[in-house]
Structures
1.
Amino acid sequence: MSQEQLGTIKISDETITAYAAGVTLAIDGVHELTGGLTDSISKNILGKESSGKGVRLTRSEEGLILDIYIIVEYKVKIPQLAWEIQGTVKREVETKTDLTVLEVNIHVQGVNLPGEEDVR
C-alpha cells in the first residue's frame, strides 16, 4: 500500500520547550524551573509568561539541544537528578515529536531550603 504525501508538520520551539518544562517539573527533586534573560524580557516587556520558562531550545540540522535551568529540592542528589532529567526529557521529547534530541544540559541555579520561599 502506498502512502500519499499530504504536506509537512512543523512543531514550534515554544511547544517543545513547554512540553520539556512539564516533563521536568514532574520529576521528584525538581522544585521549579528558573528563567534566564529571555524569559525576563518576555515577561517584563511583552507582559506574558513563557510556557517554556527555564528551557532553552537550539535547533541544528542534526537535532535539538535543550538547556534546562532548575532549582532543586534540599538534600536531593544533584548528579542522580540531572541524569534522570536528561534521560526522561530526551525520551519523552523524541517520542512525542519524532525529532532527535542531541543534548539535554542541566543547569542547577539554586537549592530550595526548607522554610524559605526561594533561594538562588
2.
Amino acid sequence: MKVVIQRVSTAKVTVDDKTLGQIDQGFCLLVAFSDADTEETLEYIARKIANMRVFSDADDKMNLSIKDVGGQILSISQFTLYADTKHGNRPSFTGAGNFEASSKKYDHFNDLLRGYNLTVETGEFGADMQVSLTNDGPVTILMER
C-alpha cells in the first residue's frame, strides 16, 4: 500500500464537472493498493494517518493530529503510485493491485479511517478525476507498507 498525505486547507474532487467530495482543513490522500496488502496493512496505515502529528499547536510546532484539529480527509484512489520507471520511458503499473480487489480495499480503508471519527470524502474509484487543493504549508508525506 502506498499513500501520499498532503496537508491542505481545502481540497475538492470532481468527475465530469460534478463535485464528489470536498473538505476544508485536513488531508488529501492519494491511495494505491497492491495484491499483497492485508487487513493488517490497511489498519496500520489508517491508524498512522489518524494519529500523525503534523498540525501546528499554539507554539507553532507540529504536535497535533487531524483528530485534534477537527480535520477532514479527502481520499483519492491513485494506482499510478505504483509506477515502475526502471525500464524505458513508459511507466509500468504491474505492481498495482487487481481492480476489483483494490476497489474493495479502498472502500474498507476509508471505513477504517471513519472508525477514528474522521469525516472522509472520496472520489470515484477508477474514474478520471480532477483534484484541486490548496496546500497548507510544506507537508507532504509518503507512506508505504
3.
Amino acid sequence: MSENDNSVNLKKRSYHHGDLRAALIAEGLRLLGKRDVDALSLREVARGVGVSATSVYRHFPDKDALLTALALEGLAQLGAAQRAAAEAAGGGSAGFAATGRAYVRFALANPALFRLIFTSPVLEPAKAAGTLDSEAWTLLQANAAMVAARQGGEAATRAIEAWALVHGLAMLMLDGQIPADETIIEKVIG
C-alpha cells in the first residue's frame, strides 16, 4: 500500500461530516461514473464515504431512496449544464440548440446516471404526483414556446419533437448504434 493510499484510507476512517446525506450522494454519483446502477450498493457507498452501512439508513431507508436522490441530483446537473450551454450560445434559437447538444453530451459523459434518470422507474412517483420539477424541463418548455411563437405549432408538440430528437440521438450513441461523435451531434442538433 502506498503512502497516498494510506492517507486516503485514514481520511475515510476519520471522516466527520456535517452533511452525510450530501456526502453519500456525491459518492453514489462518483461510483455511477464507474459502473452500472445495478452494481451500486448502499454498503459500497457507505464504505466509500468511510461510515458504517447502518449510517446510510438514517438518510436513505433503501437503495431506491438513494437512487431517487442520485437521479434528482443528476437531473439538476443536466439542467445546469443546459442552462450554461444556452447562455454561452447567447440564448434564442442558438441557445435552444445548445441545450440539446448539452443533453447528448451529458448522456455520453454520464451513461449510468443518464439511464438512471430516464430509463429507471425511480422518478415515477414524483412524476405521477406532479412534484418533479427540473431546470431541464423548464428550459425545454420555455424554448419550445419560443419556437412555437416564431414558427407556429403547439409548444407542447415542439417540446416533444425537440426532446425526442436529443434523447433518441443520445440513446443511439449510448447503445452503440451510431458513433458517439461530436460532429454528428453538431450536424443533427443544428
4.
Amino acid sequence: MHKSFTHNVKVYYEDTDAGGVVYYANYLKYLERARTEALSTIGLSNTNIKNNFGALIIVKSCNIEYKKSAYLEDNLQIKSFINTTSKTSLIMNQSIFKEKDLIVEAQIHLVFINEKSKPIKIPEKILTEFKPYISKS
C-alpha cells in the first residue's frame, strides 16, 4: 500500500463567493499548495528542482470532480499520491476532504520540462524519494 501526502488548509473569506461557498478555482490553488508541500516533505522544492536538476514541473492537464462544497472557515484535508509515472511525467491523484466527506477528486498530469519547455526525464533522486507515494497498481 502506498503512502499519501497530507496537507491541511482552512477556508478564508478571500476563498469564498458572496454566499460563503469556496469559489471553484480556489480548489486548484489548494491542490497546488498540497503538491508544493509534498515536495517539501521529501526535502525538495520547485526552486531546488530548477537549480539542481534544470527542471520545472508543469501541469499538462487536470481532471477535477466537485462532489460537495466547502464553506467559510471549514478545515480541509488534501491527500495526494502518485498514481503512475513515465519517463517524463507522473499522474498525481489528489482528494480533498471536509471531515470524513470526500468533496473534491482530481487527477493531475505533471510533466518535467527544461528551461526550453522540452520534456525531460524525471531525475532519479525525485523518483527515489517519491517511491513510497507511488501506487503499486
